[in-house]
Amino acid sequence: MTKSRNIVVIAASLRRGNSERLGDAFIEGARAAGHHVEKISLQTKKIRYCTGCEACAVTGLCVFSDDAPDIAEKIMNADAVVFALPVYFGSIPGQLKTLFDRMTPYFRKPYRFRKVVVLACADQDRRDMFTGVKQSVESWLYAFSKAKLTDTLFVGGVNHAGDIEGHPALKQAEALGKNLYSIQP
């Protein structure tokens, strides 16, 4: 049995559709393996846009008071971070990009997470639809050099809510959650 880990799943869908279901399957597997998992749905969070004021470079804190700092702290204290998201125009949803921007004050702070997983769904069944997603996450990870994008699961051809039900990707996501720490990086 592997050591219990703290995993944060960021559900970036604003309509709670296929990508959120994919994230839920991952959570089922991770919990079955004995890990503590917290799911944070960005749909219910208030995250203001970064204005580039750079006050955080001086104070280490953002000038805005909203949900972003709480989410950022949970990410920073997790062993692994999972992003479950729909692909929007070949990239990540705006709310997730806004969260990435708002994490600028945390770039020089200590963090625990070393593993990052992306679970993504797209309406079109084209592998190139996921290139921008991977690039966006890897660009964010540039600020967290000890962390790595260890696993990805991209599912195309699932446009309408519920299209993913019965899809083999649900079992893959569950297995990924269950086995995330079976093999050490």
TrEMBL record:
Gene3D superfamilies xrefs: 3.40.50.360
Family matches, as InterPro entries: Flavoprotein-like_sf, FMN_Rdtase-like_dom, ISF_SsuE-like
Ranges of residues in domain NADPH-dependent FMN reductase-like: 6-122
Alphabetical UniProt keywords: Flavoprotein, FMN
Pfam families: FMN_red
GO molecular function, one term: oxidoreductase activity
Protein name as annotated: Flavodoxin family protein
Species: Candidatus Pseudoramibacter fermentans
